[in-house]
From TrEMBL:
Protein name stated in the entry: Fluoride-specific ion channel FluC
Catalytic activity from the UniProt record: fluoride(in) = fluoride(out)
UniProt source species: Corynebacterium curieae
Alphabetical list of InterPro entries matching this protein: FluC
Cytoplasm is among the record's keywords: no
Membrane topology, record value: Multi-pass membrane protein
Family: Belongs to the fluoride channel Fluc/FEX (TC 1.A.43) family.
Cellular compartments annotated: Cell membrane
Means of activity regulation: Na(+) is not transported, but it plays an essential structural role and its presence is essential for fluoride channel function.
Amino acid sequence: MNLIWVLLGGFVGGSLRYGFTRLVPAPYCTFVANILGSLALGLAYGFAQLTDASLIHPFLALGLAGGLSTWSTLAKELGEMIKRKRWWRLSKYLFWTIGLGIVLAWRGTIWAARIYHGV
């Protein structure tokens, strides 16, 4: 049964990422996808701490976050910035992607508790 939840989450995450590529130009679509993937992972971790995460974890953490986030595209875009010697853009992009990703993953754990407790 877990495989079905992972597949369903991956379908939703991959579809969202594809939609971002159609609406938002690169590298911003990659940024949005990775940030939302970090949030989904934080929510999954938060719910796992509070409940029996037998369905939530495979769907949110493995499926949705895995299908939505695209770290290989991030690496490709960073590599292109290195080739073009766009150091300032590279440092800002990397800083905000990692920094905001960590913050949203952390906030996701807190929001999961608030959602679970109805606050």
